[in-house]
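Section 5: illustrative case.
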């Protein structure tokens, strides 16, 4: 970025900091600060390493999506998600068995507990829940529970998946389609890709029948959409897992650099570093930069990636790039399957022993139900023209 642009962004950040500080002090002086909430984000860790993340915000009372929501309801909820009033300098307390820790939220209201516990956690369940309390200021309600996933030692492999245009239809390769989906869609109206729920359940089940293969979702979507994405996945019975999103706004590093790719690579690398005993399956789409990112992951972590599944959502230059990446990966001994449907990916996964062959009929049926093939309808084309 040119020097003058860097200076301009730095000035904008300083103005933003000063304005936020004045507004916060004025609201507190006038008693206008609303109820506060601690928003925990589902994370992952190990018995020897606790990683809990969240944000302190004014509570905007965003309604849970319902079947009868109107266009106005959707727009109002989306406005509330992005018009956040973050709470900097809030004192947050995390309670673990036998110990309590406190830290202060940053200027955007985020906090991260990243430490070794006094005693190793007993990892009998996939998820551990830890109480989070807001100590100062004291305008929050009862404690909330932060969820941290600890993959069991007998998990066969992990799955790292993108979200937009991989499991959920957003049209990320088409600005108009994506804008309509982001602004007007809800957890009930957003559509999953055909067969993705059954395929991901089969990957979670694996071959040991214990359904304990951990899922991680890495996306360039902003944290502001966290609740919507969680509701979408629950509503469509997509396996739960930590969501690793990015900061949004002028204070974020990606805002000034425009580099969302390093965010994905960094998050994936941290997962692989956290679980050196686990190999992984990667899933993404051809609409953005998943294939080149996954190629870099394979180069940096040789022998750790078992297979890569890329949903083919665009034509033109980006598809050609994905095909070139597939060739490079083949030279490194990793197959990248470029396919329009989850069924083809599932058939490959069964062929190499990742899932049971018996799961294929259920995935095929799920695909038919999603695409309307049962009544003669075809799956809609949501890709649109690719962006260069």
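Designed sequence:
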């Amino acid at each position: 970025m040119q020097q003058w642009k860097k200076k301009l962004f730095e000035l904008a950040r300083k103005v933003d900091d000063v304005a936020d500080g004045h507004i916060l002090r004025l609201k507190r002086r006038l008693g206008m600060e609303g109820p506060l909430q601690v928003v925990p984000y589902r994370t992952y860790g190990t018995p020897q390493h606790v990683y809990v993340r969240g944000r302190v915000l004014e509570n905007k009372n965003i309604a849970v999506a319902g079947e009868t929501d109107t266009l106005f309801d959707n727009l109002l909820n989306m406005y509330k998600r992005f018009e956040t009033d973050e709470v900097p300098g809030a004192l947050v307390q995390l309670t673990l068995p036998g110990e309590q820790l406190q830290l202060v939220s940053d200027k955007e209201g985020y906090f991260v507990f990243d430490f070794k516990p006094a005693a190793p956690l007993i990892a009998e369940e996939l998820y551990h829940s830890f109480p989070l309390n807001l100590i100062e200021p004291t305008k929050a309600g009862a404690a909330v529970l932060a969820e941290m996933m600890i993959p069991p030692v007998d998990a066969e492999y992990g799955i790292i998946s993108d979200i937009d245009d991989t499991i959920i239809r957003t049209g990320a390769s088409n600005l108009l389609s994506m804008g309509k989906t982001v602004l007007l869609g809800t957890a009930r109206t957003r559509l999953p890709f055909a067969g993705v729920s059954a395929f991901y359940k089969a990957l979670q089940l694996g071959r040991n029948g214990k359904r304990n293969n951990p899922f991680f979702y890495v996306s360039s979507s902003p944290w502001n959409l966290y609740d919507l994405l969680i509701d979408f996945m629950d509503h469509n019975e997509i396996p739960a897992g930590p969501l690793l999103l990015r900061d949004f706004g002028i204070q974020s590093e990606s805002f000034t650099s425009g580099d969302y790719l390093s965010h994905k690579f960094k998050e994936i690398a941290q997962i692989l570093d956290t679980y050196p005993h686990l190999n992984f399956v990667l899933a993404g789409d051809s609409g953005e930069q998943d294939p080149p990112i996954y190629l870099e992951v394979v180069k940096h972590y040789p022998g750790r990636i078992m297979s890569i599944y890329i949903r083919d959502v665009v034509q033109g230059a980006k598809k050609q790039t994905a095909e070139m990446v597939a060739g490079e990966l083949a030279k490194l001994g990793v197959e990248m399957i470029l396919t329009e449907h989850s069924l083809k990916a599932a058939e490959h996964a069964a062929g190499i022993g990742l899932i049971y062959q018996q799961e294929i009929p259920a995935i095929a049926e799920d695909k038919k139900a999603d695409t309307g093939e049962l009544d003669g309808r075809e799956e809609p084309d949501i890709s649109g023209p690719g962006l260069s």
